Amino acid sequence: MKRSEINAALKEMEQMVKEYRFALPPFCDFTPEQWQEKGHDYDEIRDNMLGWDITDYGMGNFDKMGFSLITIRNGNLKMDKYTKTYAEKLLYIKEGQYSPMHFHWSKMEDIINRGGGNVLIRVYNSTPDEELDKESEVHVHVDGREMVVPAGSQVRLTPGESITIYPYLYHDFEVEPGSGPVLLGEVSQCNDDNTDNRFYEKLGRFPAIEEDEPPYRLLCNEYPAAKE
Description:
Layout: H1 3-19, H2 32-35, H3 43-47, E1 51-55, E2 67-73, E3 86-93, E4 98-103, E5 109-116, E6 119-126, E7 132-133, E8 138-142, E9 145-149, E10 154-157, E11 162-165, E12 169-175, E13 182-189, E14 198-199
Antiparallel strand pairs: 1-2, 2-3, 3-13, 4-12, 4-14, 5-11, 5-13, 6-7, 6-10, 6-12, 8-9, 8-11
């Protein structure tokens, strides 16, 4: 992706967050220049990859496959000094964008429609060899209500609704056409996007960046080392 595309995507999500009056922590407003001055007291943000994030799954077509997100809080499965067992994210997805089919080996999460349009989440059980189970019915939990749906069904979440995604439950999501962009929340167990995403088709995670303009915000994998 071009840096200009990333900057535009971040600003667009920022406006959606403001529209729905979700107050972000102060570190989300740090400029790249301010990050150069931050010491070890901000190591938790660096180590746990908090902050702004963009994914195009390495496919180079962000408007078709990808979305913008912010990790607000998270622990760290690899570093004993961080004992937090939970995580929280905001996600922004527009009509036409798609988050591809995947499951998590360890993480359980609730995906919440925080405002905007409607989100469609397709669900499949996984087989013992981690393929899509296209036959068995899926038990889904939407705001405390258990439903049983056929394999491959799309669960529709309107603003305020949420679904619980258990480990090994394949899911993808997209915006219902005509309903408008969606601000999603994610509340989950401790999150590690580098090791706990099983994509049905092999995909990447972070975009390759073409630096055609200065960054508006640093992404969560771009922070400089702490100032000594």
